[in-house]
Amino acid sequence: MIVIAKARFARIAPRKARYLRDVVVNNEAESAIKILDHLPHKSAKIIKKVIQSALANAQQKNPDQKYWYVKNLIVDEGPKLKRLRSAPMGRAVIIMKKMSHITVMLEELEPEKVTKKDRHGSKGKSNRS
Length: 129
Description:
Blueprint lengths: L1 E9 L3 H4 L3 H4 L4 H9 L4 H20 L6 E19 L5 E17 L21
Antiparallel strand pairs: 1-3, 2-3
């Protein structure tokens, strides 16, 4: 079962929001939220909210399912706010304030496919050489 959540007219440029797509897609939803918590980007906060909304939608549709993963994250371009800024010699320059539509798709994850990651890499040893 696929669950969808959307954030429309988010005040961030689509190019900046797409930057985090590879970080989130194909991750478990809970771990994706934890990763986004520690990122300094404005888009991380917005995408985190959309994933949380998708998880809430998933709990409404299928309360028995505990594990969900982010199947897809789509960032589409929304409308642009056009603002004028004064320029030299009596001219004006148009400033485009871009918006985006963010869509998150979650899919069920079977309990046997859930991986518990070790904190210190393999065999509890440090990964540094």
